[in-house]
Specification:
Structural class: alpha/beta
Number of helices: 8
Radius of gyration: 24 Å
Strand content: 5-15%
Shape: elongated
Distance between the termini: 64 Å
Number of domains: 3
Length: 224
């Protein structure tokens, strides 16, 4: 196993196949739906949660066993069946990413233990060696990284265009981002003072933009 290269993938519009019926399959299918993938589930029967996604029109479901041609035009496949090895080798031949649930030798990638707060995503991997450790670390993060982090990230998303347009110098802009993140705005949000936090962030932007403008003016004047 060498699941050492962390990556976050945009699956929007990508054809993703799920086959098999292990206890984790409903969660895997839901995760693909949440990632805006085009999901095809192939299995004679389905978990009630998967069936509900089908009834809602969020996935396709074909009530039959997997066939090799099902991988045509597929970007990613998740399998949990007695045929994991066969599915994996077929996927490898077609250069398709494959995950066989709880079957590391038949995987090209693994799923980490994930903690989310809004657009903030933290994924933990143990290279397939001790998933329980990853789960415990995730549970610790859930206690320490609360909803205020998601709220802060939402604020930073709204002010990002202003920072990009008003602070042109990369190093100055990078320093501003760190000063914002290291300031007390997170605590302000945690205490429910979101508007005050946004006002403070805007003040920091104004101070940085004005300081940069004065520096540019002074430099220009000194060169004449």
């Amino acid at each position: 196993m060498n699941f050492r290269y962390p990556i976050f993938i945009d699956l929007t519009g990508k054809n993703c196949l799920v086959t098999g019926e292990g206890f984790e399959m409903a969660q895997k299918v839901q995760g693909l739906v949440d990632a805006s993938a085009n999901v095809l589930y192939i299995n004679p029967q389905a978990d009630p949660k998967i069936e509900a996604l089908f009834e809602a029109g969020l996935i396709r479901w074909e009530r039959r066993v997997f066939q090799p041609d099902d991988l045509d035009a597929c970007f990613l496949v998740i399998t949990d069946s007695e045929n994991n090895a066969d599915v994996f080798h077929l996927a490898e031949e077609r250069h398709i990413l494959c995950n066989s649930v709880d079957d590391p030798p038949n995987c090209r990638f693994s799923f980490g233990s994930v903690h989310r707060q809004g657009d903030l995503t933290v994924a933990i991997s143990t290279n397939g060696l001790a998933p329980a450790l990853a789960v415990r670390l995730r549970q610790k993060l859930e206690r320490e990284v609360g909803v205020e982090y998601g709220s802060l990230l939402a604020l930073l998303k709204t002010i990002r265009p202003e920072i990009m347009s008003r602070v042109a110098d990369f190093e100055v802009r990078r320093d501003l981002w760190y000063r914002i993140v290291d300031s007390d705005v997170l605590q302000m949000i945690r205490e429910g003072h979101t508007k005050a936090a946004l006002a403070k962030i805007k003040q920091m932007i104004d101070e940085t933009a004005n300081s940069t403008s004065r520096s540019d003016t002074s430099a220009a004047g000194g060169g004449r």
